[in-house]
Specification:
- The complex is a heterodimer of chains A (339) and B (175).
- Chain A is an alpha/beta fold and 339 residues long.
- Chain A folds into 2 domains: 231 residues, Rossmann fold (3-Layer(aba) Sandwich); 68 residues, Alpha-Beta Plaits (2-Layer Sandwich).
- Chain A has 11 helices and 16 strands.
- In chain A, a hairpin with a 2-residue loop joins β6 and β7.
- In chain B, α4 packs antiparallel against α5.
- Chain B has 175 residues and is mainly alpha-helical.
- Chain B is 77% helix and 0% strand.
- Chain B is built from 8 helices and no strands.
- The chains are: A alpha/beta (339), B mainly alpha (175).
- Chains A and B meet through α2, α3 and α4 of A and α1, α2, α3 and α6 of B.
């Protein structure tokens, strides 16, 4: 049902703030973004092969993969800029294939290029996109004011875009993606080329948007950043989704071996001999007073190993298992292959 | 003591930045009407015109056109002397103005419009436009509209020269 709709110069039907379905936030509990068996072929190149995942409302989903893995292709399909060869994708329950116009009102897309114009200042740029999304009168002014405040670009509103730093351009482009208050944000490499401060600020802004209920899909090569800001991640290589879930879930799923570090106060070589040959132990390395053990067992076997050391008379000062970082998981899951 | 001079701002920007609106009631009314009128105009036309009027190419072409039109007024008038007092000079003079105008009309504006469309593809902004509510027709029509508007502005540059020519002839005839 379309309530309080009006035709705007942008040429489409847009619901007003008092309409039945506000645009800014996904309403029900169904997945806000959903890909179902998406395939995309370019001739003989299989850019995307059988990718399926769902992202709930208010989540930040990190999309990780080497260059040429198919991240941008699948993001472009979600952004209605490309059609899949097979499969379906949904934004807010609307098909990107059958209802692209309605989907466009619900999503903000930020590609890896800035996409700015020459001889235009910041507010003119945002004003143009506000008009292009069909915002008029007071509503446009309110959105522009909010975006300038949120992205911290109010002070540079009258400055030409040409003279802005990368960080400021990125803020402006995020502002452009937010100008029509979308419920879904698709950010392709937003942190590329930014200095640490700009990256931290971008991370804070993304966090704030997720708190406001926006669903965000973000691709990046800076995995430490993604691990901090994402609720879930998807690892893609050669067009195939290799793993998806929270960092912990993927870690558990792919944790074939872990590294145990045991600090000993007694003879370390004797302890190494006790451990060597034990079940689930692949390799034992002595580094000063620390014993590094490559281990394939679960938590119970890990406890049994420490008990064995203690029973053998070794003085164990500290024992800890290294949890794998997103980078470690990424390296483990992917093989560095490109198409 | 020097007075602080503030640059006049766009009414929309002033509203966005939370600045006080124009004092006079009639000015506020004009602001509102202009905003309403602006809302019904193709956004591409607004953006392209803003961009074009700020570009170096426009400033240079506009200045050269003015200079060329004035130069032709003087040169044409001198060339037509002394017949200018008793024979119609308009056909020759207007032909000169048409030639002067032909350069921006046939070369500069179409090339600028082409470059603008090509720039959208090269800079990746066409993709950003395609995820907005704008239709391909609106994008093309907006760009063409901006080109027509620029042509009208260039044409208007010949009017002062034309006026000067007529006044000079009339003044010398009276003498």
């Amino acid at each position: 049902m379309i309530a309080n709709s009006k035709r705007t110069p942008g040429g489409s039907i847009r619901k007003s703030f008092s309409g039945m379905i506000p645009l800014g936030v996904h309403q029900d509990e169904s997945p806000c973004i959903e890909l179902r068996r998406i395939h995309r072929f370019f001739g003989t190149t299989r850019a995307v092969q059988d990718i399926s995942f769902a992202i709930p409302k208010g989540s930040v989903f990190g999309y990780i993969g080497p260059n040429g893995a198919g991240k941008t292709t699948s993001m472009r399909i979600l952004a209605t800029l490309d059609l899949p060869s097979y499969g379906e994708a949904f934004i807010d329950g609307l098909s990107v294939i059958n209802d692209p116009e309605l989907v466009r009102h619900r999503l903000g897309y930020m590609p890896d290029s800035y996409g700015t114009y020459r001889d235009v200042n910041c507010w003119e740029y945002l004003d143009f996109y506000a008009r292009a999304y069909g915002l008029t009168g007071e509503e446009r002014l309110l959105r522009l004011r909010w975006v300038l405040d949120f992205t911290g670009t109010r002070k540079i509103a009258e400055k030409p875009i040409r003279g802005l730093s990368k960080g400021m351009k990125q803020r402006l482009c995020l502002g452009r993606a937010l100008i029509h208050d979308p419920s879904v944000l698709i950010l392709d490499e937003p942190a590329a080329g930014l200095d640490p401060r700009a990256r931290i600020e971008l991370r804070q802004m993304i966090g704030e948007l997720a708190e406001r209920g926006k669903t965000i899909i973000i691709s990046s090569h800076i995995l430490t950043e993604l691990a901090e800001m994402c609720d879930r991640v998807g690892i893609i290589e050669q067009g195939r989704l290799l793993a998806t879930g929270t960092v912990d879930e993927i870690q558990r799923q792919w944790a074939e071996h872990r590294e145990l570090e045991i600090r000993l106060l007694s003879d370390i070589n004797a302890a190494a001999n006790v451990i060597r040959g034990s079940e689930h132990v692949n390799e034992v390395v002595v580094a000063g007073e620390i014993l590094r053990i490559e281990f394939t067992g679960d938590m119970r076997s890990q406890a049994a190993l420490v008990t064995k050391l203690v029973q053998a008379g070794c003085v164990v000062a500290e024992a800890r298992a290294h949890s794998k970082s997103l980078e470690d998981i990424f390296l483990q899951v992917t093989e560095g292959l490109v198409q | 003591m020097s007075a602080v001079v503030t640059e006049p701002r766009d009414a929309n920007l002033a509203a966005i930045l939370g600045e006080a609106p124009a004092e006079a009631k009639w000015l506020r009314w004009i602001d509102e009407m202009a905003t309403r009128a602006g809302d019904s105009i193709n956004p591409i036309l607004i953006k392209e015109t803003r961009q074009a009027l700020k570009s170096r190419q426009f400033v240079v072409t506009f200045s050269l056109l003015l200079f060329a039109a004035l130069a032709w007024t003087i040169a044409g008038s001198l060339l037509l002397m002394p017949q200018i007092y008793f024979l119609p000079s308009a056909p020759t003079m207007l032909t000169g103005y048409y030639i002067v105008l032909a350069v921006p009309m046939l070369l500069v504006v179409p090339l600028a419009a082409y470059r603008s469309l090509e720039g959208e593809i090269d800079d990746g902004t066409l993709e950003l436009l395609s995820v907005t509510s704008l239709s391909p027709r609106q994008i093309v029509m907006g760009k063409l509209g901006s080109a027509v508007l620029q042509m009208m502005l260039y044409s208007s540059r010949c009017f002062p020269a034309l006026h000067m020519h007529i006044r000079c002839v009339a003044w010398t005839c009276r003498r």
